[in-house]
Amino acid sequence: MKYLLNRERLRRIQFESIEPKYVALKSIIHNQTLPTQVRWEASLLLSKIIKKNSRSSFKNRCFLTGRGASYSRFFNLSRIQIRELARDQKLPFIKKLSW
């Protein structure tokens, strides 16, 4: 599962490098005062940029196990890891109520 974490980390790093250009092109596309031709060219450039580096292609994963399902953003952990760490009282302010 570590390879999934590494792949996700690389995707995010790649997106960080193109993010300023991405934001600039998005603002050009949504600006209604600019000519249509300029906005069309900006959309073509944007489609070339985000083939693999789309922001929507990111998958949040548990940083301990790499599990993608049942992910909690608050802890950056999967539900299984939250349950185990809560049982061992390793998460702050969290207690497991049922034993």
Secondary structure: elements and pairs:
Elements: H1 2-30, H2 36-49, E1 71-72, E2 77-78, H3 79-87
Antiparallel strand pairs: 1-2
Notes on the structure:
The chain has helices spanning 2-30, 36-49, 79-87; strands spanning 71-72, 77-78. It has 99 residues and is mostly helical. It folds into 2 domains: 1-59, no CATH class; 61-99, no CATH class. It is elongated. It starts with a helix and ends in a 12-residue tail after the last helix.
Beta-strand content: under 5%
Total individual domains: 2
Q: Pick out the low-confidence regions.
A: none
Helices and strands: which structural class? mainly alpha
In DSSP terms, counting alpha (H) and pi (I) runs of 4 or more, how many helices? 3
Shape call: elongated
Q: What share of residues is helical?
A: 40-55%
Describe the structure in brief.
The protein is mainly alpha-helical and about 100 residues long. The protein has helices at about 1-30, 35-50, 80-85; strands at about 70, 75-80.
What keywords describe this structure?
single chain; 99 residues; mainly alpha; 2 domains; two-stranded antiparallel sheet; 3 helices; elongated
